[in-house]
Amino acid sequence: MDQAPDQLAEAEVERARERRQEAMHLQEIEGNPLDAADIEMFEMFEREGWSHERRLAHILERAAKARFVSAAE
Questions:
Q1: Which of 4, 10, 17, 63 has the highest count of CB atoms within 10 angstroms of its CB?
Q2: C-alpha distances in angstroms, 49 versus 7, 25, 26, 41, 56?
Q3: Which of these, 7, 3, 2, 11, lies nearest to 50 by C-alpha position?
Q4: pLDDT of the residue at 64
């Protein structure tokens, strides 16, 4: 089955999942755990096989929107 150009191969998804789990553990140690929404977002990336570039673009877009909402308040 062909994968879309902005999708990761299954082995790459698995490596990304392992890195996420390790990062989550380190964040917990530092007292800064991910919240449920963040975990769901990363799990969606893995489920959908999003490329790292697409993931980064999505996160940057969310951050920009959050900044805009904060500035408006």
A1: 17
A2: 5, 22, 24, 12, 13
A3: 7
A4: 93
Q: What token pair was written down for 63?
A: 């951050």
Give the pLDDT of residue 71: 74
Can you give the pLDDT at residue 5? 73
**H helix count then E strand count, the chain:** 3, 0
Written as one letter, the residue type at 38 is D
Give the separation between CA 44 and CA 54, rounded to whole angstroms.
12
List, for the chain, all residue ranges whose pLDDT scores fall below the cut of 50.
none
Residue with tokens 């697409």: 54
